[in-house]
Design a protein that fits this description.
Number of helices: 9
Number of domains: 3
Number of strands: 14
Helix content: 40-55%
Structural class: alpha+beta
Distance between the termini: 45 Å
Radius of gyration: 22 Å
Strand content: 15-25%
Length: 303
């Protein structure tokens, strides 16, 4: 998108759109949609912007006012995060300042490195547990991007796509693996905290009040175990990148060690749920996932 102030035009994909016409008074062709404050914290406000609507070709076609029920869903998700994982909620409050809802079939939530604090969240294709996960996931990208602005964590890798990503099921460069490992470790933390939060007698009532079902709890535990396996896979590659290839800096190695320590704690907390998940309807998917990782290690081993 390109704005030509002198001509009062916006150019998008080769087409010019008028911003304003002047007669006896200015007549704006575009309407300003004020953001809605979701909550205030010591770090500032978290606001909900207008909804970005996508077409069938998965490109933006319109901006619409955000419906009140979307704000209600966001506030409920934030409340669950605050109750289940206070530390994660503090990170969310300090690093995410604006949420843009996406009405976009098949478009995943996203954020931009050059727009810190802005999370575009698909609120229409995703359920309540997904929404909680997406808020933390995009916030984790903001978190790592902040760390990367302060410290170089990798070097000399020439952006080579040689590391298998369990999440994309394709080869990725070191930066992509570092981002994925960081964000999905945070995701595993979230699912472990949700599992623990819902495990007590009082937790069962809290879970129900949050609009989450017993199947959502099973799915959270499955997702946690799934992410544990995926993160463990990529941590081995990051160890290789830092040790054998010398591509991680001291700061990068320190972050990888902290992720490994965090994962070990999550694994310990989830031991009691492993058998239940294996016997549940999610068991076959978990076994397939582990088999895929084993095959990938054979196919894409770098040593």
């Amino acid at each position: 998108m390109h704005v030509r102030v002198a001509d009062r035009l916006v150019s998008y994909v080769g087409t010019d759109y008028a911003l304003v016409a002047y007669g006896k008074k200015a007549r704006w062709h575009w309407r300003r949609l004020e953001p809605l404050c979701l909550r205030e914290s010591q770090y500032g406000a978290l606001v909900l912007g207008p909804t970005l609507v996508y077409g069938k070709d998965k490109t933006p076609v319109a901006v619409r006012p955000t419906r009140p029920e979307i704000a209600a869903r966001m506030r409920r998700a934030l409340s669950v995060i605050a109750s289940a994982w206070p530390e994660g909620d503090r990170l969310l409050a300090s690093l995410t300042s604006r949420v843009v809802p996406l009405k976009a079939s098949g478009v995943v939530s996203f954020s931009y490195r050059h727009r810190p604090g802005l999370s575009a969240i698909n609120c229409f294709d995703r359920d309540r547990l997904d929404l909680i996960d997406d808020l933390i996931h995009e916030n984790s990208h903001h978190h790592l991007n902040l760390l990367l602005r302060k410290d170089a964590m990798y070097q000399h890798d020439h952006n080579q796509e040689i590391f298998y990503s369990p999440w994309r099921r394709s080869l990725r460069p070191l930066r992509g693996i570092l981002h994925a490992t960081f964000t999905f470790t945070m995701g595993a933390m979230l699912f472990e905290r949700l599992s623990t939060w819902a495990s007590s007698r009082a937790g069962t009532a809290r879970w129900k009040r949050a609009g989450l079902s017993p199947r959502d709890l099973q799915r959270a535990r499955y997702r946690c175990l799934e992410e544990i396996d995926s993160v463990r896979y990529s941590l081995k590659d990051l160890d290789l990148a830092g040790g054998h290839f010398k591509w991680l800096t001291r700061g990068g190695k320190q972050v990888v060690k902290q992720l490994a320590d965090a994962l070990a704690h999550i694994e310990q907390q989830m031991l009691t749920h492993e058998k239940d998940v294996s016997r549940s309807s999610f068991g076959p998917a978990l076994r397939r996932h582990r088999a895929e990782l084993a095959r990938a290690r054979e196919l894409f081993s770098l040593v």
